[in-house]
Design brief:
The protein contains 14 helices and 16 strands. By secondary structure, the chain is α/β, with parallel strands linked by helices. It folds into two domains: about 220 residues, Carbamate kinase; about 150 residues, VC0802-like, CATH 3.30.2130. The strands form three sheets. The protein has an eight-stranded mixed β-sheet with strand order 3-4-2-1-7-9-10-8, with helices on both faces. The model has no long low-confidence stretch (mean pLDDT about 95). It binds aspartic acid and magnesium ion (MG). Magnesium ion binds next to loops. Aspartic acid binds next to loops.
């Protein structure tokens, strides 16, 4: 069995949904098809939630009606028979009445989660009606009946596996199963979600639960590129990545993959194929346990980074200092990305600034603290052998004209990161591309 996950743009219009139907019927392999919400819908639901939080009911109703109009249009374009159109209309009536019901009552985080789940519920139900019309034998299995996170917000793998099996066994003859990405229940049985972009995570969790032969992630780009195509000319998709390389890249800004989605596949050694719906024949990127040793694979960047330098005489020859520092970040649930140390100071970076001022207040109680905002982490991902010389020269030689605030080398064998000013990011990406890829191929 395989898993095929289609992102928002891949189900973003009637035409695209029909293409999905085509792609899932090209072969007769059994498959679970995981769908995102139609592109833009989740953002619109977030925005409806914002109106409801500030108790602007008129604004919320207006936004809900605008969204409904988009779906009415999709209904017209997707189906040919009046019967399907009528079925879709009833579904939309029910769904949008539910959305409107949020404007009549108290709106809290619980309602917000239920609101955010509607995008995937809509896309999958509409797609199922299309499959019925097109004579595609498929069963819809509700993610809310098997997808679950525990008290620590981690996936409850045992629950997912046993309940998914139950769902699948209801349709022994069916070759295609359709389910919602992103939505789940939490430890209390309430509707919840796997955070923005979480459909990828659903796909690999489902893949792990059924020990799939492969998890395919279908998007509108042709795989993971070796640099940011918006900034650098001449990038190309990387044909194969190891799980570790992919995890580093997913985290550092390559928006194509949800950062948590690599580990469930890695744990069960299931390959992830990144494919392009617009160019299905293209190779895309395969993520698996196999990798070429000793190579520089890709460059990525993450903006909006804050660097914090913590200096204290107490750090010199002392133990426990770093623990005190880390505890502050832990209390405010703020992940640390990069870290470098000297004998008397430690510099680290964070991405989430929501508790920055509280964190600084606490740190200043026992250390001198300096803050630099608007930084970018630029990372070079590859398979670096620890006993090989020359990587540092290659990377830092390419960056010779860029001021560097921090360097992290050796944290893993798959990543070298530097922290630069946001203003220098484009130049850094281009210089690295030139130094690591272009110059090399010309030589
Ligand atoms: N629809 C959700 C989002 O836009 C989940 C996903 O598409 O992966 O974040
Ligand atoms: Mg996505």
């Amino acid at each position: 069995m395989i898993v095929m996950k289609f992102g928002g743009t891949s189900v973003g219009s009637a035409l695209r949904m029909k293409e999905v139907a085509n792609l899932i019927t090209l072969d007769s392999q059994k498959k679970i098809v995981v769908l995102s919400a139609v592109s833009g819908t989740t953002n619109k639901l977030v925005s409806i939630g914002e109106s409801l939080y500030k108790q602007d009911k008129d604004e919320a109703i207006h936004k809900i009606k605008q969204l409904r109009a988009e779906y009415d249009q999709l209904n017209q374009e997707l189906y040919s028979s009046d019967e399907s159109k009528e079925k879709a209309k009833l579904l939309l009536n029910e769904n949008f009445e539910y959305l409107l019901s949020f404007t009549k009552d108290l709106f809290t985080i619980y309602e917000e989660r239920a609101l955010l789940a509607q995008g995937e519920l809509l896309s999958t139900n509409l797609f199922k009606i299309y499959c019925d019309e097109a004579g595609i034998q498929a069963a819809l299995i509700p993610a809310l009946d098997f997808m679950r996170i525990d008290k620590n917000l981690e996936p409850d793998e045992y629950y997912i596996q046993s309940n998914l099996e139950k769902e699948l066994s209801k349709y022994p003859e069916t070759p295609i199963f359709i389910t919602q990405g992103y939505v789940c229940r939490n430890a209390f049985g309430e509707i919840d979600n796997l955070k923005r972009g979480g459909s990828d995570y659903t796909a690999t969790l489902v893949g792990a639960a059924i020990k799939a032969k492969e998890v395919q992630i279908w998007t509108d780009i042709d795989g993971m590129h070796n640099n940011d195509p918006r900034v650098v000319e001449g990038t190309h998709p990387v044909e194969s990545l190891s799980y570790n390389e992919a995890a580093e890249l997913a985290y550092f800004g390559a928006k194509i993959l949800h950062p948590s989605c690599v580990w469930p596949a890695q744990q069960h050694n299931i390959p992830i194929a990144l494919k392009n719906t617009m160019q299905p024949e293209a190779k895309g990127t395969i993520i698996s346990q196999f990798t070429d040793k000793d190579r520089i694979t890709a460059i990525a960047a993450k903006d909006g980074i804050t660097a914090i330098k913590i200096r204290s005489g107490r750090m010199l020859n002392a133990y426990g200092f770093l623990r005190n520092v880390f505890e502050v970040f832990e209390r405010y649930k703020t992940p640390i990305d990069m870290i470098t140390t000297s004998e008397v100071a430690v510099s680290l970076t964070i991405d989430d600034k929501s508790h920055l001022s509280e964190i600084l207040d606490e740190l200043r109680k026992y250390a001198h603290v300096e803050v630099d905002e608007n930084k970018t982490i630029v990372c070079v991902v590859g398979d670096f052998l620890s006993d090989k010389k020359g990587y540092a020269e290659q990377i830092f030689g390419a960056l010779r004209n860029i001021p560097i605030r921090m360097i992290s080398y050796g944290g893993s064998n798959n990543n070298v990161s530097v922290l630069v000013n946001e203003n220098d990011k484009n130049e850094a990406l281009k210089a690295l591309h030139e130094g690591l890829f272009t110059a090399k191929t010309m030589a």
